[in-house]
Fold these 3 entries.
Entry 1:
Amino acid sequence: MNFQMLLLVSVFGGLGAVLRFVVDTIIKRMKPTIFPISTLVINTLAAFAFGCFVMIVRNVHPDVYTIATSGLLGGFSTFSTAINEIFNLARDKHWTQFVIYLFTAIIVPIVGFILAVYLMGFLPR
């Protein structure tokens, strides 16, 4: 790892965080709800994009792959927020939303990743 790579990952991580903030704000304004749909959407989009990068960029441009996945997608996705929202739903006794989100927060992003890998596997390189 060199300083330039560290700087690029940091910059793209910041851009990912800003992108997450924008998407989160848009979704929350469109659909205010107890259920944390914005984090679910963000993490699913990040997982799908990660699957695309795995299939398209990983072996061709390893530095671009690192900058995009560790930087941009690392800043965009937020598993820690999902864990906090799961905890808050349980703490506030929103049991139905708690159970649904507990499973969807993990399964839906994984399905997004698998879907991207599947779809990207059939695209010409």
Entry 2:
Amino acid sequence: MKLLFKMLGVISATLLVAQAVATPFLIDLTDPATYSGHWGGPSLVGVLALRIGAGVLAGMYLYGTVARSYPRRHETGR
């Protein structure tokens, strides 16, 4: 069950990161009609903050998940 929740979290986080990367390229920044109905609208700042902010948080989750899944190598200092 723990693995299932972890996999769902990784999939959801990956989708949020992809959305954050794609959003500035998919909306017309000069036309408010393209982003006024999105989450965080009707202002461009709200839309970008919400979408990119969620992607940044999801990226931090992914980094933490991947970093904890691999054992650390200890250097001997030789």
Entry 3:
Amino acid sequence: MRIRRRVILRKSKRVLGSGVGSTKDVVVTTVVSTKDVIADLTVGEHKETTEVRLSSVLAVLAGFVGAASFIHSAGYFVTFMTGNTERMVLGWFTGDAVLAYGAMILVAMFLAGVVVASLARRHLWSNHPHGATNLTALALTVAVVLDLRLSGTDTTFSPTIGLLPISFVAFAMGALNTSFVKKGEVSIPLSYVTGTLVKLGQGIERHISGGTIKEWSDYGILYASFTAGAVLGGIVGILVGGGWMLLAAALAAAATSIYTYRRDAKTEPLAPLK
């Protein structure tokens, strides 16, 4: 079976001596094989499945780092910038300058992570769209080194993670959130769960109104993955203290970056962002 496709082309033609342009319609008939159509659909479905799998892995990482960091810091958020913004403002109203400045630094570092990862994606790893995990792993490694240095030794971690190491964790989470980009905008939020829940609710409404389960299932998987990561981070945070949690997060990020790199290697190279 073959499918005929009619394509209308507009071709400009200048009339000699008149200086007036006229337009002629040129009809081109192309023949497309059903095999090609099926192949295109298969590639699209495979790409979508791969994105769901990758986003789930990265959401687990984000939930893990966020929960474990919260336990072993002074209650700082590294994935929840809404909360940090509120703490920054409320800190000024309550006279708690330490709270205000700390939250402001984390917001600034998260934003810096987004900017740096976006620049790197445009200029350095355009063929590896999920290369942001490399920057995430690097930033978490820096946080580990800083925690060791601040503890006064090179072999013992601090029992509580200070603001400086935590700021690099926030940077790492900002970078991680640039992993999925379409047309220059984040297409899949990884750590800001409020957006995921909104999309989940809208998908459920579309399903109720006659759509399919695919309207919301991907967002449900993403939310469940983040929650699972938070549970894992809470368990690890209880079992190990301070910088050991950072080390576990850095190792998890490194393993994730290897996984995403291998997945990217099996997909078509992408053009740089425009």
